[in-house]
């Protein structure tokens, strides 16, 4: 069982887990990021079926260079998202197409080190019918804007694989 609590040092709150400093408060807030083409909503149970449908569009779980959950294993995906949020290490979003109001994929802030003001963006997947559209570009712009302007981070890293490309 995870154990963490808040400790105060020099009037700043820090999140401690198993006697290890995890992050400086405040941790991620569950915010919705709105764009012209997509909306990023903090992942919740209401996105479950939509993510299953998005993963099925292109059988994304069969891609060897990334992890996309099979619809039958979506519970593991949601548990990891919840666990990472609970310890202040990440925030997972459902990517919503504004035109259809449907879930088209997911992306996340991960491996956050808010004390050093760094975070990674990764674990992104989009339904095949939304790949090579403005959806991923705008999702990343929304996340970068939030990371630099609202969270005042100094560094954001993208995690991707060189095999994740098409001619």
UniProtKB/TrEMBL annotation:
> SUPFAM superfamilies from the entry?
Acyl-CoA N-acyltransferases (Nat)
Identify the taxonomic lineage of the organism of origin: Bacteria, Pseudomonadati, Pseudomonadota, Gammaproteobacteria, Oceanospirillales
Q: Which organism is it from?
A: Marinomonas algarum
Recall the GO molecular function terms of this protein's record. acyltransferase activity, transferring groups other than amino-acyl groups
Domain (N-acetyltransferase): residue spans on this chain: 39-165
Pfam family of this protein, just one? Acetyltransf_3
User: What InterPro entries does the database record attribute to this sequence?
Assistant: Acyl_CoA_acyltransferase, GNAT_dom
Q: What is this protein called?
A: GNAT family N-acetyltransferase
């Amino acid at each position: 069982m995870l154990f963490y609590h808040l400790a105060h040092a020099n009037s700043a709150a820090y999140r401690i887990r198993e006697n290890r400093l995890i992050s400086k408060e405040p941790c991620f807030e569950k915010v919705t990021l709105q764009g012209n083409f997509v909306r990023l909503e903090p992942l919740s149970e209401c996105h479950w079926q939509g993510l299953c449908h998005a993963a099925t569009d292109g059988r994304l779980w069969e891609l060897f260079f990334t992890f996309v959950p099979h619809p039958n294993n979506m519970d593991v995906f949601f548990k990891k998202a919840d666990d990472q949020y609970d310890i202040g290490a990440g925030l997972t979003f459902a990517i919503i197409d504004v035109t259809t109001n449907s879930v088209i994929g997911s992306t996340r802030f991960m491996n956050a080190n808010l004390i050093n003001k760094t975070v990674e963006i990764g674990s992104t997947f989009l339904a095949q019918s939304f790949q090579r559209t403005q959806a991923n570009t705008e999702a990343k712009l929304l996340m970068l804007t939030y990371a630099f302007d609202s969270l005042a981070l100094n560094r954001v890293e993208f995690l991707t694989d060189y095999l994740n490309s098409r001619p």
